[in-house]
Amino acid sequence: MKSFRLMAAALACAAALSATAHAGEAEIRKNLGARFPQFAQIDEVRKTPIGGLYEVRVGNELFYVDEQGDYLVQGEMIDIKGRRNLTQERVDKLNEVAFDKLPVQDAFKIVRGNGKRKLAVFEDPNCGYCKHFEKDLRNVDNVTVYLFLYPVLGPDSKVKSRNIWCSKDKAKTWSDWMVGEVKPADAPANCDAAALDRNVAFGRKYNITGTPTLIFADGSRTPGAIPAAQVEKQLAAATK
Known about the structure:
The chain is an alpha+beta fold. The chain has helices spanning 2-35, 86-94, 128-137, 155-165, 170-180, 194-205, 228-238, and strands at 44-47, 53-58, 61-66, 72-73, 78-79, 84-85, 108-112, 117-123, 143-149, 213-216, 221-223.
């Protein structure tokens, strides 16, 4: 009988805590939405390791508020004892893109060696960092690269991307331009290049804001022209 009463008390306590959490979330959504237009559409509210402090997510942006939504903090949350940047860890997790969900039909493949390892890259043909990256990426073997043309640097980027996409050998035309500065030939007028618009739409949806952006087989994402040695390291980690 005593154990039954203890169990009932524990369940009542858990229910009370759950109700408090939901009440806090509702109040945060209500108050922030009423006070700031940018918080009219909040994607997620969740507790943080700090008592009384909640994480508010709008898209991939993170904010921290008290349980009434009266005070808002912008910045990074650091676990000093564990030496971890909790905000960055959360952002990295939010930025992950499941590799099997990538629209690979809108990319072209570059296969090196046995092609067993996989990497997706979003690049703009007028991106100087991408050209540097492409030269270094040639040192990475036994990989299949899914190259997504991502023309975001202006009208000429879209023209060049269309010419590359509509060429007979996309991979060669891409490499000739990015590494050898051989300008791609003009595409035929009837070429279907709708894939380029879909790539840009996909990138906006998943917050791909710069080129190159790399996506590895485990869903992890890295922005920027990282060196071949780092690509190798992350390819190895992604296949464990």
